[in-house]
Structure formats: structure tokens, C-alpha cells
Amino acid sequence: MREAYLEIMEEAYFEVTEAFRGLADRNVWKRPAEGLLAIGEIAGHMAYWEAVKFAGDGAHESDLAKCPVSSLLIDHRFRYYQTTIATQPSPEHLSMSAEEVCSELLRVHRESFAHFNARDINLNDHPPGWWPNLTYKAFLSYAPIHVAYHTGQIYSVRHLLGEETPDN
Questions:
Q1: Residues 6+ apart with CB under 8 A from 119
Q2: CA dist 15 to 64, 67, 100, 132, 136, Å?
């Protein structure tokens, strides 16, 4: 079962790379309209939650400091829409190109899942600090949906910014 989820995640990340293909650097951190996130912010959200859920010991986000994966994209401001929209990206974020954001997101994904796969986790176990009915299997089954949803957002933001996107 674990292998099937991991294969689906690899397909989801293939689509992420397609969503970034040809993205203009000037549009990575540009919000397309009031109340909408920039592509870099969406990528940060994806990276944040993969690191929280799959790297380290699976502890809740309050233990993110213990996460063995580090990245500019693993930033607490990317946690949820409300915290992201209320702030602006840091100068370090703004210096990242489209290629750098995509590469960094892929690196965080690979490293987070490498840490997850290196641990002998029963998928029916409950991650520490999360709701009692939540399991690692729930993390794995939701992860491709999360990536697909936000990949669609990336395409939509690109369209709103007037970009032509790869055939998706």
C-alpha cells in the first residue's frame, strides 16, 4: 500500500514540474489579485506541510524546529492562507527564481519522504501531537490530493497573470 501512495506522489510531482515549466521569474512572487496567493507562496505551503507531516518523527507543526529538512520554503508564514495573505514574502524568498522555487519544492519533497521511508512506521499508527483518529495512512492518502489541488492553483495563478501554460 505504501508503494502505491508513493507512486501517486511521484505522478503528482511530475505535474508540479509541468506547472512550473516556462513560468516567468517576475510572476513567482506576484499575487494575481487582492486575496490571492502568489505561486511561490503556494509552493511554500506545499513544502511546509510535507516537511511537517513526513520528515522528522511526524510530530505536529509545533515541533517543526526538530525537522531534519530545512528550506526557505519551510516557513511558518506559509502554514495556512490567513497567515500567508497577511504578510509579504521575505527578501530571501523574493530572490528565488521560478526554477529555484520548483527545485527547492522538489528537494523538500524528496528529503521529507526519504526521512519518512527510512523509519519503520506502521501506517495505522497515530502521529504524535495530532488528532487521535488521524493516522500516517491518512497523511499518505491525503498528500497527493493536497499536491494536485495546489498544482491546479498554480496553473490558475499563471493564467490570471496572463501567462500561457503548458498543456495541462
A1: 57
A2: 27, 26, 17, 33, 24
Half-sphere exposure for 166 (CA within 13 Å, toward CB): 15
Nearest to 144 by CA among 17, 11, 21: 11
Its pTM stands at 0.94
d(CA 81, CA 116): 26
Cα–Cα distance, 2 to 28 (Å, whole number): 33
Neighbouring CB atoms inside 10 A of 1's CB total: 9
Contact between 154 and 40 (Cβ < 8 Å) = no
pLDDT in tens, 13-48: 999 999 999 999 999 999 999 999 999 999 999 999
The alpha carbon of 70 is separated from its chain's Cα centroid by a whole number of angstroms, namely: 13
CB contact burial 53-77 (16+ within 10 A = b; e otherwise): bbbbebbeeeebeebebebbbbbeb
Q: How confident is the model at residue 129 (pLDDT cuts 50, 70, 90)?
A: confident
All domains in the chain, ordered by first residue: 2-160 (1.20.120.450)
Nearby residues of 147 by Cβ (< 8 Å), 6 or more positions away = 9, 12, 13, 15, 16, 46
Of 6, 75, 4, the C-alpha closest to 41 is 75
User: What CA–CA distance (Å, rounded) separates 16 from 21?
Assistant: 9
